Amino acid sequence: AGTVYGVVSGDGIESFFVVSSIYPRYIPEFDDLMELGYFKTVGDIGSDEEVIKDYFQKHQKDLTSRDSVSLSGVVYKLEPDSVRVDSLEIADYYERNLGKYYHEDAVNCRFLVCEDSERAQLAYNYLRQGVDYELVKWCFSDTSYYLEDGMIEYQSLPKEMQNLMRNIPEQMYSSPLEIDAGWLIIGKGQVKRAGYYSLEIVRDQIRDELAYFKADSLAYNQAKTVFDSTSSFNDCARYAESANIFKTPYQEFEQDFPRLGNLAKYRSTLMRLYWNEKMTQLVKVDNGYAVLFMRKKKAAKQLTYEEAKPKIKEIFTSDKELGKGKKYIRAVINDLKNGAEADSLLYFLGGFHREKNLGLDSIIPGFEQSQVLIQDMTNHEAGYYSPVLKVGEEKLMFYHINAIKKVNQQDFYRQRKAFRLRGEEDDYQNWLAEYREGKRVRR
Predict the structure, then answer these.
(1) Average pLDDT, whole number, for the chain?
(2) 285, exposed or middle or buried, with CB in 10 Å at 0-12, 13-18, 19+?
(3) CB neighbours of 145 closer than 8 A, spacing ≥ 6?
(4) Residue 67's closest CA among 273, 313, 286?
(5) Selected residue with higher pLDDT from 432 and 389
(6) Residue 443 has pLDDT above 50, yes or no
(7) CB < 8 Å & 24+ apart, contacts of 436-440
(8) For residue 210, what pLDDT is reported?
(9) How far apart are CA 257 and CA 157, in angstroms?
(10) Residues 136 and 127: beta-carbon distance below 8 Å
(11) 17 pLDDT exceeds 50?
């Protein structure tokens, strides 16, 4: 059980090694499976004409083509790297928003978690001997902690750790502490006393923010000029460079449009346009703004039997593959419940993705209906494994709850009060910064 690791010595060099994956199932060659008839082509599946006709009769209203369009227009993308931000602008922004850069007492923290105490003690001994932290973490850390390495305000740490962190000397590590996820080693780096981050520390951050704001404003104004000056696509060449003018091929709204991204939310508006008609608003697209004109459109229509036949065969194939996928993932879940190591077991399936500190409004990467999924999680307890969920045309998933904290009414009111006080503190710091600037009070 656990990660396989070890130390190899030779020629005066001591080397760590970690086995990143042990795949417990035999993977047969693809050609062998083909010979056994494991895979069938779309043409081979559902060849029974009566079965296909029966499906067509029962699901005819659902067998339609999809709305598709070909668009033209002008697009301007945000280009922050090409925008100039001078030092005076950065200094002025810093002074006007000084309260934004106030911080409480903070400390540079490192967190290393091991599944068993023996492994944690070995990692701790190497750290005390001065071995590089990143190397030790790579070799011995079994899982991620819910706090990221970096500068953290003391008050943001769990209460049981705040005193511990204040008492550890700088550039030192705590002995292993037992937690729910295993054994935790905490490293303490530089301490920053409460105050304002200096301009030098936040200069690059401010430059990036101002560059983005300028680039966004520039792209919007360029697109707005074209929008206000054109009535048809033929006018665009008079007001825009050829590099910004585009035409898209026919495609359905479920696909991303080249240079524009997903336009599904504009489907109904676009489908009401006539040939060469301009959409009556600027459109926010992927990293930019666009003026859209209708070139061609095809409305969804009922498919004839001959048109639907290939689609029905694809549905039969998809259903069979979905069944195989669900069966396999159920076996994976069963292995995990019996103690299999998740990262090793799922290595060839893209790994086991971990998300920490999820709230009701969090976004889960790769899952469009994040709030629906998170709401479902709130109905279960720690240790729960979900059923197999289909989240895309060719994507299945399941989730496992490591830990969950449900806030009761008393906790809600207490946290609301703390949040309100924090907001008042931010307002006060902004006022104080402006007052000091107005009265030329020196800190």
Answers:
(1) 81
(2) buried
(3) 111, 112, 113, 181, 184
(4) 273
(5) 389
(6) no
(7) 437/95, 437/98
(8) 95
(9) 44
(10) yes
(11) yes
